[in-house]
Design goal:
With about 750 residues, this protein is α/β, with parallel strands linked by helices. Residues about 295-310 have low confidence and may be disordered.
Length: about 750
């Protein structure tokens, strides 16, 4: 709270109840130096406020208090706003020299009252709504912390004075609140859904039960869930009558939506439709978890709800070891595809080894929102009740895919063939990434897709398009583009054929085959025919070789290292990192090779051996495109120069990875030369001395940049501090735990100094 931020000589609170009294208490606690006055029809409330030290004085007559106030806060019932404003207009017709704001939970009715009274919206009238409260009422219940970490929504109009808006914002920020801005109609719609409707239902349920003959037993034996749900039915009846009256249209619209949902659930119960019940309950359960994460300010999908993700900084101390045996999380690419194809299959698909990172969870939640019943995840196990190729339902809003370019591009192909219209969006990083590489060929197949400026997200995909199979010769090798077109091809008339200029990962083709869908391949081209079916099965997701790479490099550069990575996927289209490290001289051994669910896996044992710089074969570049940040660290510890060419794809990942890695290497003091499509890195290669210094690195929110420089600390001469590491949770939730287990010294520091 900031004492100097509120520069009001005299604040007048009209309506000294819980909300107004708590505002006064919060300002007092923040050290507010101005006068706080109150006007209330109950003189006893004024006296009690003075006795409690909340206000300096007040009276029951507005005319005695309003003229000298620099700011007036209207904390009266919604239906009383018009009469209070009318009195203010009599005293000061233009509100000249005064800022007026309010705390009403419905804004359109209050704006209409202002227009009726003043004839226009006075520039210094700033409508607002603190989303906080209690079932208690009156100034005696005033709580100085009522607004701390709660949202206050301001709804300024086009004519609102910027200075007045800033003063109201400062008022609530001094109380510890987070201040947002929203359109009036949007505010009323959101509050009708999240506040007004729940209160209406609670009042109705308690009233229904209270009128039954067995009401005493019902209430006597009610469990905690009943008490929790119905607590809000103890709120002020008069206040809620006024709110429902003032926000009638939005409340009725929300009630209509609820009744339709309730009718669907009733039908499912009546007919014994277990999948429909499970889909509803599971969707609700995980939506509740999202809500909890917002309240706790954790990162799980918070970006989608306009909450900024907490900043995370890694501090990694120099030295350490790379010993032992670990299993890294499941492959993210396969985790995404297992949910997508399992949802479209007929029957129940069981997935084990599922990556419980935020990107994969976003994909899982997206299918819940499209009507798919999904159990889990629990310890990597997910059960998907498939709805068939044409069983998806229109989501109620945009589909959020977090930070995952893979999910967005694959979803684009899958949704292009649906009967309903949809929108794909993601976090701030993803909205900067190009999507024309999938939008343009999909349009050539007949899809109707709108993008933001520059071909960037969000993607708006119009439903009902008739897709035609096509031959597409990819200009740039990309597994995401290939997979996108194959998924669209499932819904297309005829054959969809894709040629790739260089080999890319083939998880989609393999998994389609595993679900019984025929995919052909000859040389550099693969194809399928639309209109077939997917049959459910079991999927065991192997450990992600991209995640394993950071630990492979850790062992490869650390003297005396001996580390085994268990159950790693060694798909031939993904082993570029193994090939490149082997060419550099790494002591790397594949043991216990086997095939699980169509995907080859092995344990990878890496022991330290001196590395040598190489010219990376161009043919290996697409096979290791995601692993290069870690490979750059290997190059910085090799003897001689490592040269990379033909890697323009690195410029358009979560960050410009060529530039980001070059900037980080420069900070550490590693000699290098950056090119348009590659880089030269001159390594140290002397195991007896640190390979470079320490320093502060900006990962730019790119999880692979963050993890690469964390591993670099094993051979650094000083601490490496890495900013913007929160997105590591998207692909590798257990990175810190496993890094510590093998012998690294890594601490995560959250914004505000929390460890």
């Amino acid at each position: 709270m900031n004492e100097s931020a509120v520069d009001e000589s005299r604040l007048l609170i009209v309506g000294l109840g819980l909300i107004g009294g708590s505002l006064a208490a919060a300002l007092r606690a923040a050290g507010f130096q101005g006068e706080i006055m109150a006007c209330d029809p109950d003189a006893r409330e004024i006296e009690r406020g003075i006795e409690m030290g909340l206000i300096d004085g007040g009276s029951t007559r507005l005319a005695e208090q309003a003229p000298a106030a620099s700011m007036i806060v209207l904390a009266v019932p919604v239906l009383a706003m018009e009469s209070v404003m009318g009195e203010l207009a009599t005293l000061n017709p233009t509100l000249a020299g005064q800022v007026v704001t309010d705390v009403g939970s419905t804004k359109a009715a209050i704006r209409d009252a202002a227009l009726k009274v003043f004839g226009h919206m006075p520039p210094t009238l700033v409508l607002g709504h603190p989303i906080a409260g209690s079932e208690k009422s009156g100034v005696a219940a005033a709580n100085s912390t009522l607004y701390v970490d709660h949202n206050v929504i301001l709804t300024p109009e086009a004519e609102t004075d910027a200075g007045a808006l800033a003063r109201v914002r400062a008022l609530w920020q001094a109380c510890g609140a987070q201040v947002l801005e929203m359109d009036v109609s949007r505010h009323d719609e959101v509050l009708a859904q999240t506040s007004h409707l729940p209160h209406l239902l609670a009042f109705s349920l308690v009233d229904t039960l209270a009128r039954q003959d067995q009401r005493l037993d019902i209430f006597r034996y009610a469990a905690g869930g009943f008490r929790d749900f119905t607590r809000i039915a103890g709120s002020d009846p008069v206040m809620w009558r006024d709110i429902f009256t003032a926000n009638r249209e939005a409340v009725l619209s929300s009630l209509d939506d609820f009744e339709r949902g309730l009718a669907r659930l009733r039908t499912a119960v009546e007919t014994g439709d277990g999948d429909a019940m499970l889909a509803t309950f599971d969707r609700a359960s995980h939506a509740r978890h999202y809500f909890e994460s917002l309240l706790n300010k954790t990162s799980y999908q918070t970006e989608y709800a306009m909450q900024s993700q907490g900043q995370v900084t890694y501090r990694v101390r120099p030295g350490g070891s790379a010993q032992g045996s670990v299993r890294v999380p499941g492959d993210k690419s396969i985790s995404h595809r297992s949910i997508m194809l399992g949802a479209l299959a007929e029957g129940v698909t069981t997935v084990t080894g599922f990556l419980e990172g935020e990107d994969s969870l976003a994909t899982l939640q997206a299918f819940r929102e499209m009507g798919v019943a999904i159990e889990g995840p629990h310890q990597g196990r997910v059960v998907i009740h498939g709805v068939g190729m044409h069983g998806l339902q229109a989501p109620s809003g945009p589909i959020y895919v977090g930070n995952s370019g893979t999910a967005m591009r694959l979803f684009a192909g899958l949704l292009a063939g649906q009967a309903f219209t949809s929108e794909l969006t993601g976090d701030e990083s993803l909205t900067r990434r190009p999507m024309n590489r999938v939008a343009e060929p999909l349009r050539a197949m007949g899809a109707v897709i709108d993008t933001a400026e520059g071909g960037r997200p969000p993607l708006h995909i119009h439903g009902g398009a008739s897709l035609k199979g096509m031959y597409y010769d990819m200009p740039v090798a990309s597994a995401q583009v290939k997979s996108c077109l194959l998924l669209a091809g499932l819904y297309a008339d005829g054959e969809t054929r894709v040629r790739e200029p260089a080999p890319t990962r083939d998880h989609t083709e393999r998994m389609l085959g595993g679900f019984g869908y025929q995919v052909e391949r000859q040389g550099d081209t693969c194809w399928l025919n639309g209109g077939e079916r997917l049959t459910a099965g079991a999927i065991d997701v192997p450990a992600d070789i991209s995640s394993a790479t950071f630990f492979m490099v850790a062992a490869a550069i650390t003297p005396d290292a001996d580390l085994t990575l268990e159950h790693v996927g060694i798909n031939p289209t993904r082993i570029g990192v193994i090939n490149i490290l082997t060419l550099m001289g790494a002591n790397l051994e594949l043991v216990n090779e086997r095939e699980i669910g169509g995907e080859p896996v092995a344990d990878i044992r890496v022991r330290y051996a001196p590395l040598t710089g190489i010219d990376i074969p161009v043919a290996q570049v697409p096979l290791a495109i995601d692993e290069f940040p870690a490979l750059f660290i290997a190059a910085a510890n090799a003897s001689g120069t490592t040269r990379l060419r033909g890697a323009a794809e690195l410029r358009v990942k979560e960050s410009d990875r060529l530039q980001a890695m070059a900037d980080g290497l420069a900070t550490l003091g590693v000699e290098h030369r950056l090119l348009d499509e590659g880089i030269d890195i001159v390594g140290n290669g002397d195991a007896q001395t640190p390979s470079y210094g320490g320093g502060r690195i900006d990962s730019l929110g790119d999880h692979r940049i963050a993890m690469a420089f964390a591993v670099a600390a094993l051979r650094a001469g000083d601490d490496i501090v890495i900013d913007n590491c929160a997105n590591v949770a998207t692909s590798f939730p257990d990175f810190i735990e496993l890094a510590t287990r093998i012998g690294m010294t890594l601490d995560a520091e959250r914004a505000g100094g929390e460890g």
